[in-house]
């Protein structure tokens, strides 16, 4: 997990030995961690850590799941993509099967796209506790019939518009598609999907994200280091 927190820092340490460059490196890493990964965001003031309002149909749909492609590209893109698939699952009244993230730190860092399980980065149970009744993550072991799957091909091309994308999602929330236990999305990376939700809905998802202890400790080390050189 140290790769996620210190990859940029090591690059700067190897190539730039002056104190100003080191200060800049620590600042970049800290801002990246605090802004992109930690669950509390200054832009979303007023969103509390209490549990979200219940979706009246949510309890009846827990046996149905949404499966999505691996979430890739840079850290910020992964955060946005994760929120997007959560909101897609909520729209379809389905539990989101725990997706895979990637080790990439920057956009199109293709040599680092090896999958990383969501629960190796964020606390799985804590996410469900904070987002209870709003959106839910499930494990693949919860799927009782692995053959009861329908593949949803995400649209692509210049003629595929946001209106068509939204109508496709609505269609897959109705019969006969809603009878399948698993809807598996194939095609585009989630970050490239159309956006149908306001910022406040993304904020609710971000509020439920809590780093695992190992990564959280590494983030604290970076912040402490910045404080030590705060006079530079």
UniProtKB/TrEMBL annotation:
Keyword Glycosyltransferase: yes
MF (Gene Ontology): glycosyltransferase activity
Keywords on record: Carbohydrate metabolism, Fucose metabolism, Glycosyltransferase, Transferase
Superkingdom of origin: Eukaryota
Pfam families, A to Z: O-FucT
UniProt keyword annotation of Secreted present: no
InterPro entries: AtOFT1-like, GDP-Fuc_O-FucTrfase
UniProt record, GO biological process: fucose metabolic process
PANTHER family according to UniProt: O-FUCOSYLTRANSFERASE 23
Family membership: Belongs to the glycosyltransferase GT106 family.
Protein name: O-fucosyltransferase family protein
Organism of this sequence: Salvia divinorum
